[in-house]
C-alpha cells in the first residue's frame, strides 16, 4: 500500500483518507502537532494518514455530537480491513456545532 500508483490512479492512503472522512462524526484528518502524521507521495502528501510497512496511524478531528470511542473504533476497523495491518487511531481534537446565545 505504500507503492507509487501509476498516473490517473489514487494511492491507497488517499482512498483510505476518503473512506475515513465518510465515517459519521469524522470532521477532518489531523496531521499532528508538527505535521508529522502523513503519507508522502510523489508531489503530494496525505495528512492525517500514516501507512507504514507493518502498521499505521490515523489522526482525527471528531464532532462532539458523536461518541468518540465509537467513531475511533469504526475508523480503525475500516483502516485495518482496507490495509491488512493494525492501526492506531488518535482523536487529536474535537469540534462542536453548539452555538452559545
Concise overview:
The protein has helices at residues 12-21, 68-83, and strands at residues 26-29, 38-41, 44-47, 49-51, 56-63, 87-95. The protein has 101 residues and is an alpha+beta fold.
Description:
The protein has a single domain, classed as Alpha-Beta Plaits, CATH 3.30.70. It contains two helices and six strands, in the order αβββββαβ. The radius of gyration is 14 Å and the shape is globular. With 101 residues, it is an alpha+beta fold. The strands form two sheets. Strands 1, 4, 5 and 6 form a four-stranded mixed β-sheet that branches. It has a two-stranded antiparallel ribbon with strand order 2-3. The N terminus is likely disordered. This is Asp23/Gls24 family envelope stress response protein.
Give keywords.
single chain; 101 residues; alpha+beta; globular; Asp23/Gls24 family envelope stress response protein
Radius of gyration: 14 Å
Task: Classify the beta-strand content into a percent band.
Answer: 25-35%
Number of domains: 1
Q: What is the percent of helical residues?
A: 25-40%
DSSP strand tally? 6
Give the name of the CATH superfamily.
Answer: Cation efflux protein, cytoplasmic domain
Unreliable stretches: 1-5
Number of helices: 2
- CATH C-level: Alpha Beta
> Based on the structure given, which CATH architecture is correct?
2-Layer Sandwich
The pLDDT mean sits at 90
Q: Biggest sheet, open or closed, and with what strands and sense?
A: 4 strands, mixed
Amino acid at each position: 500500500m505504500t507503492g507509487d500508483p501509476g498516473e490517473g490512479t489514487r494511492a491507497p492512503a488517499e482512498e483510505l483518507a476518503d473512506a475515513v472522512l465518510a465515517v459519521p462524526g469524522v470532521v477532518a484528518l489531523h496531521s499532528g502537532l508538527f505535521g508529522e502524521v502523513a503519507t508522502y507521495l510523489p508531489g503530494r502528501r496525505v495528512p492525517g494518514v500514516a501507512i507504514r510497512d507493518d502498521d499505521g496511524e490515523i489522526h482525527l478531528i471528531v464532532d462532539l455530537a458523536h461518541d468518540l470511542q465509537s467513531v475511533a473504533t469504526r475508523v480503525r476497523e475500516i483502516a485495518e480491513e482496507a490495509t491488512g495491518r493494525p492501526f492506531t487511531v488518535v482523536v487529536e481534537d474535537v469540534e462542536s456545532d453548539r452555538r452559545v446565545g
